[in-house]
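Task card 7
Instruction: Convert sequence to structure tokens.
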Amino acid sequence: MHAITIEQPGGPDALVWAEVPDPVAGDGEVVVEVAASAVNRADVLQRQGVYHPPPGASRFPGLECSGRIASIGPGVSGWSVGDEVCALLAGGGYAQKVAVPAGQLLPVPAGLDLVTAAALPEVVSTVWSNVFMVAGLRPGETLLVHGGSSGIGTMAIQLAKAVGARVAVTAGGKEKLDRCAELGADILIDYREQDFVEELKAATDGAGADVILDIMGAKYLERNVAALAVNGRLAIIGLQGGVTAELNLGALLAKRAAITATTLRSRPLEEKAAIVAAVREHVWPLVETGRVRPVVHATYPLREAARAHQVLESSTHVGKLLLTV
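Output:
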């Protein structure tokens, strides 16, 4: 088969289309013939040499895909060759075939085409596990989403609205904020020109956000705590603003607040399987009824993955970038 390989870390040109050995389904795995994959910021970090695949994972980038089951390994039940699926991966999505633990498979939702389904597994699993399973967002609460126009952000807006929460977002510029509003965002904050702490408190009568989904890390830590409501929960899923910051623990204590930080890629298989099962139970019905939908900015041929990486790094997109085989 062919896959996008990274022989030397670097810029988008480091992504090379090459012939590689076919994967083989091990115990509890299936091999998926890939129809499409999606671009995530973790893929960019891997290309740059700063985010390596976990032990045992494919060395090729790609944290989600859609396609058809080509073969089934020992110990797998409930799936058949030819089934149309999408899958959460630890790597390997930028390829014509990929081996996937069966617990990380999802059926393609009814009413959604096979290619578009590739936009779902990583973002839905990330949002559901952090915002709902860990932070426990409830109806009537306020969620602040940083990067509201990203793939993660566009999904977080929709899921939070679907459960009856109020949603605030930060994004850069009117066009991106308008797209967030179309998806249901209630409070729109242009981080280039507005202070999100002040804007959020003004919009919530001084209360702040019950849950914050953060991709920035160190740069936003102090202000995120300031923006939290009493009993608020800060869920950190990215470090685009750095890894080290000072924090006044007194401010955290005064609000009886909690901070969590998680990654999805390196979690044990059983934890990923539990998240995927929760997604299938709680989110798939919303997708199938049209209440939640993946937002796709553009689609590129897989062998032109470098173009998609350039778009992602330019931050001019809204939603997901897909790669088709």
